Structures are given as C-alpha cells and as structure tokens.
Amino acid sequence: MIAGQAFGGNVKGRILADGRPLEGVWVSDGEVFCRTDSRGRYEFDSSKKFGVVFIETPSGYVPDSRDGLRPQFWQYLKLPVNREEIHDFKLCSQDQSHYSVLLPADLHLNNDPRKKDLQQFASLVTPLARRLASDASGPVFTFHLGDLTQDIFWYEFGFNEAECVRFLQDQRWPTLFCSVMGNHDHDGAISGEDVDWRAGWMQRDCWGPDRWAWNIGGEHWIFLDNIIYKNEPGGIPGPRIAGSQNYSHGLTDSQMAWLAQDLSHVSKDTRVILCMHCPVLSHRSSGETYAVMGHQTAALDALAAQFTHGFTVFSGHLHSFDFAAMPEYPNIRQYTLPATSGEQWKAPRGIIKAEGDGSPAGMMMVDFAAGEEPAMHFETFAGQFTPYRVYDLNVVGKAYAASKEWKAVKEGRPERIDYSDSKWKNCVLVNYWYYHPGDKVELLEGGIPLKLVTRLAEDPTVVFQKDTQYVFSDQSYPNPKAGYYVKFHNIQPRLFIRFGYVFKTSSAKTPLTLRITGKDGALKYEQAIERPLPFNPSLND
Amino acid sequence: MKTVYRLFLGWAVMCLAASVAYGGNVKGRVLCDGRPVAGVKISDGYIITLTGEDGRYDMMSTKKDGTVFIITPEGYTVPTKDGVRPDFWQYLALPVEQEEIHDFVLVRQNQDKYRMILPADVHLAGDARRDILTRFKSHALPLFKQLHEEAPGAVFTTDLGDFTHDYYWYAFDFREMEGLQFYQDIGFPGPMYAVSGNHDHDPSVVSVPDVDWEAGWMQRDCWGPNRYSADIGGDHWIFLDNMYYINNAGKGKKGKGLKGDRKCPGRFRPEQLDWLEKDLALVPPGTRLFMCVHNPLLRASGRSSGIPAEQMQRIEDLASRYQYGVTVFAGHLHRWESAESEEYPHIHSRCMAGTSGDMWETVKDSKVVAGDGSDAGLAYYDFEKGQEPVFHFATYKYGERAYRVYDMNEVGKAYRNEPAIRIQQQKYPLHKDYGDSQYKNMVLVNYWHQKPGDVVELYEKGRKLRGENSMLEDPTYIFAWNVEVIKGNIDKGAHKSNSMPYVWEFVTRSAKTPITLVIKDKDGNILHQETFTRPIPFDPTGKSEPSIYPAQ
Q: Which residues of A touch B98 (CB under 8 A)?
C-alpha cells in the first residue's frame, strides 16, 4: 500500500492577491468549504470526489487568467485521495463599485458550413460585445447561460466545447467569459451509467465545476449545472451520437447541499444571483406560470427566503424572453433570456434576425452600482431594442395567403396557426416578449379596451424567418451524401409564443392605442397604431 | 532565426512523434501579452511539439507522466504560481481518450544578461535542535535577496536537490510541501526551478512496482516533472532527476515514517534520456548546454560517480554535438568538486557544496561550513550573450571566498589544546593529528573552487615553495564536525577519516615570514592572489571573524 500521510488536509494552498496573501477567501471542492487564514493559506480534507478545487473570488478581486478569456478560479485535483496536493491561486484587485455583466445565452456554435454561424458570431456578437465593454463605466464580465455548442454537431462538424474555447480565444473576446452547462454542452457520444457526470467532461474541462460562486461588487453570483443529461436510446441520429440527447431539469442532492452551505457564508442583505441554463419558473403559452424544476423550486425558494432580495435567476434554454414570478415562490425572480444565436443562426443572412419568440436578437447587459438597483438593458445586433411588436393580422394574413412556402408548412403541420384564415380578420396580435410579472397589455380602439380573443399565438416574423425559408430546402432533410446527417431545421407542430395577445377590432382601419402598464399600474409603454400596419419579417424598418 | 537553424529545426520537428492534427488529446495555446507565440516547444515528457503561427499546439499524448509543460523560449519567462515556482507545467487530469486544454502564458524578458543561483542540499527540516528554518532565514535568505537586487539582469534560481530531508519528513512534519510553504511564507525571491535529490523522496513508499516514481510524488507535485528544459538568454538549461530511489523495505535506519533503507543510487530513468535526445534535437549545436541534476556525473578523479556507463556514454554522445559540450551542475556531495574526464570529454562537472553547509549540523553559534570545510553560501553564475559564464560564490558572512589558508603552527596549537582531538585520534586513528610536530611551519591551502588545470602556488620571500595536492583533511571541518560530535553537540556519528581533494600543502622555512598565495587557471591567468602575514589565526567557529554584513 502506498502511504502518503496527510498532514491535516490533503488539499492545501495559498491565495495571493496582488502578490500578497489574502485572508478570508472561501475555497471548496464541491463538498467541503474552508477559508484562508492570515497567511492566505487554506487546508482541508477532501474526498476529491469531483476532482476539482475552486475559490470563491471575493468582492473587489478578479482571478488571474492564462488566456485572457477564462478566469483561473479552479484547478484539477490530480493525486489520489491519500496524497496531498498544493493548489495556489492568484487574484488581482479590481474596483467593482460599478460593473456590468453581459448575459448571452444559447449561442449554439457549431461551425456549420450551412449556417456559417462562426462568421455570423464574428460579425455580430463580437463587435457588439466590444462596443458594450468599451462603453461601460467599470469592469465587464460575460456569463453565458448554457448551450454554448450543440452536442449533435460535435462530431459532424468537429466543433466541440474545446474548439469553441479556441474560437472565442481567437475572437479576442473583450471580457472574462464563463459558461454554465446547457443540455447541448454534453458529449453526446457518451451514454449509460452516470452519463450526466461523464458526458459533462469537456464542458467542465473548459469552463470549470458544475457549481461555483463569485462575489462581484455587492452581489453573490452562483453558477450551477441544472441539466441532468440522460442521452437515452432513440432520437436524431448523428455521427458518434449514442442516444437521443434527452435530459431533465434539476440539481443533484450534492449541488443543493453545496448551495446551502455556500449561502450560509453570505450576508443576508447581499443580492444573490443564480446563473443556470434551465429556468426555475416559466410561462406556458396560455400565460400560466409553473415551476420547471418541480419540487426543487420550493427548496430554492426556502433558501432564497433568507435573503433580503431573494434570488434573481438568469437562464436561457427557452430561446425566448420569459420573466416570471409565482406567488407560491415569492423569493425567486426568474429572468429567462432569449438565444443570442437568434434561433441558432438559421435566419437568412442580411436580415435582423429574430429570437425564438420574435424579439430582435442580441444579449442582455446588466449594470451594477453599489447601493443601487441593477439596471437591465437588452442590446441588439442592429437597431434599437423593442419590447414588443404589433401585427395587423389582415396584412399578415395576406402574406400568409400569398406564400406557397407557408402552404407547404401548413400541409405538413396542420395544427399550425394560419393567419390567412378568415377567423383572424380584423384581429391584431401584440407579441409582448419583454413582459414582466404583473404587466397588463391593453389595446384600445376609440379609447375603449378591446376584448382579448386568445393568448395562443405564433409570431409571424419567426414563421417567415425560419419555416418558410427552409420548407423546400434540401438542407431540411438528412443528406448523408453531402455529409449532413442532421436536419438543418425541423418545422415544429406548434410554435406558440408565451406573451401573445390577440385582440379583435371592429374594422380594418380604425386607429388603435397600445397601452402596457406595470404591476403597480404605472404606464410603461403607449403607442398609437395606424392601420393597415405593414408586415416586414426581415425587420429592416 | 537563422536559415540554417530553421532548416535544422524543420528536420528535427519531422523526427518528432508529434500530433498536430485535430484529434490530439492535449492542446492549448501559448500567449504573451495576449498575443499568440509561435514556435514554442511543449512536451508531455515523451513528445515535443511546437506551437503554430496561432500559438496553438495539439498533441496526442499517452498522458503517462500526467503532466504537460512548456520549454520556455529564449527572451521570455513564465509568471510564477506563487512568487516562487515558475508556472511552466500543468497536470493532465483527464483519461487518455479525453482531450483537455492547457494554455500557457509567457512574459517577455531581456536575457542579454542573467544570473542563475545554484543552491544545493538546502536540507530544510523542522528540526528545533539545529534550528534550520531560523538559520536559513538569517543566513541564506538575505543573501538570496541581495543577489537578486545586485544582479545585472534577470535572476533565476535552480535548487540542485535535497531541498528537504526524507529522514525527517515524518519526524518533524516537514516535507517537500512544508518546505515550499516555508519559502512562500518568507517571501523567497523566485522564480526557482528544482530538481529532485535522493532526500526529496517519500520514505514511506516501499514495495510497489515503481518505488522511484511513486516516492517522488510530492516533489513533483511541488516542483514539476522529472525532466524539462528552458532556453534562457541563448543557453539551453536542462533539469533532470538522476536519483533512482529504491528504498528496500524493512531495512536501514529506523524512524518515524521510514519504511526502507532509502537507498538511492545515481541513475536516470530511461525515458528521461529518451526525452533528452528529443529535446536536444531542437537545440542548435552552437548553444551552451547546462544540465542541473542532484548527483554529479563525475568525481574529482575524473571517473564516473556511479551513473551507469551506458547512460554516461549516451550523454557524452549527445553533448559531443555541441561546441561547448554540457556543463553539469550538481550537489549531493556537500562539497565542491569540479571534474573533467578523458573518457567523457564533453561533460564538464561542477558540484556545488551544500547551501546548508553540512545539513546545518554545525553548531548554531558557529559559522556554517560545508563538508569540505568551505564556508557555506550560494554559488551563482552570471551569463552574458557571447561571453563565457562567470562563476561566483558568495558566503553567508564573508563575501566571495574561494579558499582558506591555514598556518599549521596555529592549527597545531588548537589541536593540542582540544581534548576532543585526543579522543578522535584514539578512536579514529586515520585522522591526521595536526598537533604533531611533522606539520611545523606547514601551510595548508584548501582551494575548494579548484577546477581541473588550476594551479596553486605559494611564495615565501619571493621564492616559490614546493607544493603538493596532498588531499589532507580540512581542520575547520574537523572542528566543526568531529569535535562537536565527540562533545555531544551534534547528534551524528563522527567521520572516521577525511580527505579533501583540493587541499594543498606547502612547507615554509620559518613561522613568521609573510607568504603570498597565487592561484592560476590552466592557461596561466591569475585567478587569486593574496599575501598573508603570519601567524595566521585559526578560528574554526568563525566567532572572531566579523561578518561583512552588519545585520548578521
């Protein structure tokens, strides 16, 4: 037996900040926490189960970075559990009295020659990030909310999580960049026992543990993997893909235990922000909210209740805006952000692409200042951000009627909403993607609020940017001869948006007034609408 | 790069087993100031590959040794992990079938002039009796800092092994890791590279298939792989572990945590020399090579120190391609020895005496002396492009000192007046009794920095005396060790005999005439010249010799 006698801890090290030992920094292996002493030293006994040690960077500091992209807040534990190992960390001091965070989500980078997604990223996303970082009044961080790549294309296009890191490095991304695990960030070639952990190997190798935290300014940021990858048999075939890439949403018991322990070190008036790929709360297309993470939602709410500001949760996954709250979980405020890829880069080049919910593509930026409420603003690739879009369904209906592509979509998916149908005559659709809990949407005709016909709606821009573009394309089908094994675009049986409001007007031409108020009744948006209202799915106004 | 070197490099790269296509399992990028650096050598200890124009490398590694490291190119250095250790290596953590990313950062550095400090046998231990850590802080640390401050350029340190002492790892809870933490806590001025000594192994590791590898776990965890190199200022530095730990189970001295006899012959693991060959394939023939190991390859006699002949020959063959051969810096002996060999003419051995003296065993209020009687201190070389490296040795208290001159009339008095010497002579009759009249009017010169071909001359009234490299024992060391052992102040065994390779004896005509020492190199250049009036006091404790550093 090889004996390596532990001297009070098998993981130890020192944390330096600007070259000097830093006391009071929390260090963890995913199970155990300890804190550095006055010499900047930490030491603890680790099971080394998760194979990593990481620090919780304290406020006012930022970890060193080898590649200018990824902060070095974690290191692998390499030696057997009966052997000690040293892991030192270096920090630099930073003024975080004002700072900003970019929150891209669902970048779905694939190196797909059909979509030329990397080129689109380079021409749209990187310049936007550079401008935002340059204009900011303090340091800027990028926290990507998962699905950085896409499992099913890893082997077909030779672009996996590691390749994506290299790509972002080559882009000289202007800020430190972190990314949480999304369902598509797993290695689809792995299935079977313990697949969730095993399939996450590359994402963790690139981006770090499945749970960690970072104190920035007055905020405590927590990053968690809440995807439980299953990759069971079936699903879309692809090169080396072993299963259907299916998954469920949730945190492991170990993660929940770690989270509770982490939060026990955080002062109760701190703003706690969680970044996870899958949202905790969401809206159905009917407008009803529900708890996505099931029973764990209550557990998270209970943890959040300790804190003055509860939990703010940023997520992606839905490719849509979805700001949600539920009275049953009063301490959680969910902000789901749309896909920065603008629906996986499928929209034809040269147009302002829409997200999955019809909103203009871009990414959220949040500005933080000590003692102030964070300020969120959504930055688009082109043009100003609009919180909603209004559709004159008479005009939209004509476009549908004139489109042979739409007819083909409808034939294949008869359940889809056909706005050329006469039942939509004189109707107006408001797609208010930037809905905040408690907001109220009214459409007035002659000063009188119109009756809401339905909440079930599809966004016509999305239909014309995607479904009608690809319904006849060869790329819509598996094409082994060309080397494309995976369908470029699947036309969905239903494409409901979450915040659609369809109103019936009395005629085709009467002017209307859109009025949106907040939960306190204060007016948020008001717009006079002249009809007919043109319909331009390219969004080039 | 010159055209010839480019062609040479291209040929060499083709010879390497490198994987650069997508599909490698170890990949990364080397950046300097945020920009990629091309042509940087990266290795896993078996393969060496180069970064491309985009600063990227990609290799298919067996991950056998579990590390990847950068061979720092000339004109650059790496940041330190912690102010002490250069950040040139990383663990490979994932299974061989999984790829992993390991990036490296370089910092530009002017290396037209640089200094390499070469401590050896520091033997740190948490031993209260010897008070090692206090003495290191009071003696060695100020000198390290001074050598950094006064250096003409960049400064590096390479520890030549036996940084700690396995025998005491578990007795004093002070191992390689605690040694590193000690250096971190005292603000040791890095960067410091370190090679493994025999005493840097874990003595509790026995009876496993590869004791040498397993027992080296902590040394490698602290300091890095057992083979690596760096290009500094046009020179190529190689760092190897040539101590093969056997540690036969159940044998040897007993003590806490000691499971074997800690036997550790001098020998390279085969993969080290295989790697060395690949490493040198990328180094142009005009480059000066410096190798850092613990066990010297040659002894003062010119014979091998015990490294297997086939390994010596392999190193000789590799070194023969180089204009200057290879200069090998080592420790282990706790004494100075410089050696050349007719059998291995391209290997130049330079063994440094112990930075700890003789493991800090000399009594606390006496000066620290090494096993050859030399005053302990730090050896260092100053390098300048296109110039011969210049050797220096700074003692802890007395500045640069290459020799000591003994007036044996005064030494004889001390011997006659010391009862412990009588006991020594009774117990260990092989020792020289310098109290005997045969040593009357004799002068001994212990020129511990003697190199092959150096000549030591002594003049009395302008007359050159006949001298003999008699390799007698050094009186200071006898008093520092045997006398203190016999008195019970050192908890070790006495030496039964001593023979110092660089001791010269001269017989003068009288007791009081001044003498002039002249030391010349093989080309006749005067290296040292000093005149002494006699009698020359003999104070082995050094208490009467003031330090040139007021703080000490």
A: 201-202, 205
Contact A169 B29 (CB under 8 A): yes
Q: Which residues of chain A neighbour B175 with C-beta distances below 8 Å? A: 7
Chains A and B form CB pairs within 8 A to the count of 88
| φ/ψ bin of A67: left (φ > 0), alpha (ψ from -120 to 50), beta (otherwise) | alpha
ipTM attached to this prediction: 0.85
Q: What band does B547 get if pLDDT is binned at 50, 70 and 90?
A: confident
Buried b (16+ CB within 10 A) or exposed e, A52-91: bbbbbbbeebbbbbbbbbbbbbbbbbbbeeebbbbbbbbb
Are the beta carbons of A385 and A379 closer than 8 angstroms? yes
What gap in Å lies between CA A288 and CA A455, rounded to an integer?
A: 10
Nearest CA in chain B to A66: B105
pLDDT of residue B181: 95
Share of chain A above pLDDT 90, in %: 84
Residue B228 phi, psi dihedral angles, 5° rounding: -170, 175
Q: Which residues of B touch A79 (CB under 8 A)?
A: 217, 221
The pLDDT of residue B15 is above 50: no
Residue B31 belongs to what H/E stretch?
Answer: strand B26-32
Chain B nearest C-alpha distance from A157 (Å): 12
pLDDT at A133: 98
Q: How many CB atoms lie within 10 A of CB A433?
A: 26
Q: Which residues pair with B390 in a beta bridge?
A: B382
Name the CA radius of gyration of chain A, rounded.
25
Question: What is the least distance, in Å, from the CA of A39 to any CA of chain B?
Answer: 7
B99 in A contact zone (CB under 8 Å): yes
In this complex, do B204 and A79 lie within 8 Å of one another by their Cβ atoms?
no
Distance from CA of B224 to the nearest CA of A (A): 12
Ranges under pLDDT 50 in chain A: 1-6, 541
- CA distances to A102, A150, A186, A203, B447 from A197, rounded to whole Å, are 28, 17, 9, 10, 65
Q: Does B217 touch chain A (CB under 8 A)?
A: yes
For the record, the structure tokens of B421 come out as: 């010497």
Q: Is there a contact between B130 and B360 (Cβ–Cβ < 8 Å)? A: yes
Could you read off the pLDDT of B240-254 as tens digits, one per residue?
A: 999 999 999 999 999
pLDDT digits (tens, 9 = 90+) for B462-492: 999 999 988 889 999 999 999 999 999 888 8
**Predicted pLDDT at A350:** 57
Given a contact cutoff of 8 angstroms between Cβ atoms, the answer to whether B366 and B481 are in contact is: no
Q: Judge whether B32 is closer than 8 Å to chain A, CB to CB.
A: no
Report how far residue B239's alpha carbon sits from residue B230's, in angstroms, rounded to the nearest whole number: 8
pTM over 0.95: no
Contact criterion met (CB below 8 Å) for A341 and A349: no
A19·B205 Cβ contact <8 A = no
Structure tokens at A331: 């301490």
Distance (Å) from the alpha carbon of B55 to chain A's nearest alpha carbon: 10
- What is the distance between the alpha carbons of residues A267 and B77, in angstroms, rounded to a whole number? 42
Q: Which member of B82, B205, B221 has the closest CB to residue A14?
A: B82
The pLDDT value recorded for residue A115 is 87
Distances (CA, A) of B26 to A165, B15, B442: 14, 20, 66
Nearest to B127, CA basis, from B178, B166, B173, B184: B173
The per-residue pLDDT for A483 is 65
What pLDDT, in 10s, does the model give residues B498-520? 888 899 999 999 999 999 999 99
Helices (H), A370-420: 393-402, 404-412
Judged against a pLDDT cut of 80, whether residue B211 lies above it is answered with yes
Smallest CA–CA distance, residue B38 to chain A, in Å, is 14
Q: How many Å apart are CA B263 and CA B259, to the nearest integer?
A: 11
DSSP string for A466-511: IIHHHTT-GGGS-BGGGTB-S-S-PPPS--B-TTEEEEE-SSSS--
